[in-house]
Design a protein that fits this description.
Largest sheet: 7 strands, mixed
Mean pLDDT: 97
Low-confidence stretches: none
Radius of gyration: 21 Å
CATH architecture of one domain: 3-Layer(aba) Sandwich
Helix content: 40-55%
Number of helices: 16
Bound molecules: NADPH dihydro-nicotinamide-adenine-dinucleotide phosphate
CATH class of one domain: Alpha Beta
Shape: globular
Number of strands: 12
Distance between the termini: 28 Å
Length: 448
């Protein structure tokens, strides 16, 4: 088996030698899915995984825009259309200086499996730009978004490819992007998700990724007869996912003690309650400030520059910032400090070595493609509401989100539970369940 997996990976490495994040994501899938393919004749000899690692289409384009001082700026825009076997391409847009082909291909590849797990008819894609929104005025953000969409609009559409937000792309950016798409196409359609609720957005969409990550942690804990109530929780990031993960943990009776951004983390041993979270939301979403300002408002808290929060003792860790933010050493410290559950809010935040340690220790570990799927699932619900020209209530959407997270958890058990030991390998479960649905559709559609 090792030989088969290595043979496949060698080919992928040769073709994508300059794309480490993409290779990391493919390796994790190959190690669990190839043994499954070998055991199931219908997938054998069809090169399905080889087809799945090649994007159906990858577009790269120039984005020219003028900054507030009248200088012409040039950025790169991308859209990776990875797989459309089970529905139109769907996945977020990331605006961050680190964006390149490797990062977007890893995100698009993970998205294919994640979207399949949601049970909704969505293929996988991802896009974005190396544009850095930090320090830009609202007018600069608007000009950039308009320039970006003036090319992207040719490649997307409500039945073709429906982008959403990701790092650096929130409600403000989706508004500017939607405005330019509507002007160019002269159509009001559900071409983007994460829209404002007065113009086609869904209630609970901003909350969905963070809430879903916590619902998934709750489901995992229930398999051990345990609960979030009374538990200490460390969270990284302070953006969209981290904020709503904090809100849901607090609502369920847990205590969140950390948040972070790329400059460091804050520790508040008293817990980040509703009122303190409102301060963080205003700081990050309106004032666009740094998390270090938290300690000015709450002097009992401490700020640790350039550090991640994983050295703080906790029962539950929710990495909600970015890829590879939790390494082997962090995992060792978390385990030594008694951590029993890790539910990934970000995409691929734990390194391969960290995951291996969590699995060896047999703690509850959920990969992002399962635990953070609530965001794209609710985007799928937004698409349905747009098609129906109807809005569901907050409770209706939240109930559907809970159901979907429960279904994803069930599928992880179906494909990931070891019947002898009872251990649930959520990585294996998510990869195989995500693969089967896409692979069956690809087989049915022939070699296209
Ligand atoms: P935001 O832009 O709202 O927030 C990102 C947060 O992560 C910020 O606090 C940011 O700090 C921090 N961060 C970003 N890059 C780094 C870095 N290199 N090192 C340390 N901290 C960093 O993004 P989201 O909350 O939307 O996304 C967070 C993660 O969740 C990403 O991995 C994303 O792909 C994933 N995700 C998001 C979904 C969504 O619906 N939004 C859906 C599914 C997954 P700073 O401000 O300093 O940059």
């Amino acid at each position: 088996m090792k030989h088969k997996i290595e043979g496949f990976l060698d080919l992928v490495r040769q073709r994508n030698s300059l794309e480490p994040e993409f290779l990391q994501a493919v390796e994790e899938v190959a190690e669990t899915v190839i043994p499954y393919i070998v055991q199931h004749d219908i997938y054998h000899g069809k090169n399905i995984l080889l087809r799945m690692v090649e994007p159906e289409r990858a577009v790269m384009f120039r984005v020219n825009w003028v900054d507030d001082s009248g200088e012409i700026q040039v950025n790169r825009g991308y859209r990776i259309q990875m797989n459309s076997a089970i529905g139109p391409y769907k996945g977020g847009l990331r605006f961050h200086p680190s964006v390149n082909m490797s990062i977007l291909k890893f995100l698009a590849f993970e998205q294919v499996f994640k979207n399949s797990l949601t049970t909704l008819p969505m293929g996988g894609g991802k896009g974005g730009s190396d544009f850095d929104p930090k320090g830009k005025s609202d007018n600069e953000i608007m000009r950039f978004c308009h320039a970006f969409m003036s090319e992207l609009f040719r490649h997307i559409g409500p039945n073709t490819d429906i982008p959403a937000g990701d790092i650096g792309v929130g409600g403000r950016e989706i508004g500017f992007l939607f405005g330019m798409y509507k002007k160019l196409k002269n159509e009001f359609t559900g071409v983007l998700t994460g829209k404002g609720v007065t113009w086609g957005g869904s209630l609970i969409r901003p909350e969905a990724t963070g809430y879903g990550t916590v619902y998934f942690a709750q489901k995992m804990l229930q398999t051990k007869g345990d609960d979030i109530k009374g538990k200490t929780v460390t969270i990284s990031g302070s953006g969209n996912v981290a904020q709503f993960a904090t809100e849901k943990v607090t609502q369920l009776g847990g205590k969140v003690i950390t948040l972070s951004d790329s400059s460091g983390y804050i520790l508040d041993k008293d817990g980040i309650d509703e009122q303190k979270l409102a301060f963080v939301m205003d700081l990050k979403n309106n004032k666009r400030g740094r998390i270090s300002a938290y300690v000015d408002a709450y002097p009992n808290a401490k700020f640790f520059p350039k550090k991640t929060p994983w050295s703080e003792p906790c029962a539950i860790a929710l990495p909600c910032a970015t890829q590879n933010e939790l390494n082997e050493n962090d995992a060792k410290i978390l385990l030594n400090n008694g951590c029993i559950c890790v539910s990934e809010g970000a995409n691929m935040p734990s390194t391969k070595e960290a995951i291996a340690l969590f699995q060896k220790a047999k703690i509850l570990f959920a990969p992002g493609k399962a635990s953070n799927a609530g965001g794209v699932a609710t985007s799928g619900l937004e698409m349905t509401q747009n098609s129906l020209r109807y809005n569901w209530t907050r409770k209706e959407v939240d109930d559907k989100l809970k159901d979907i997270m429960g279904n994803i958890h069930d599928k992880c058990i179906k494909y990931g539970k070891d019947e002898k030991t009872g251990y649930i390998d959520y990585v294996k479960g998510a990869n195989i369940a995500g693969f089967v649905k896409v692979a069956d559709a690809m087989l049915a559609q022939g070699v296209v």
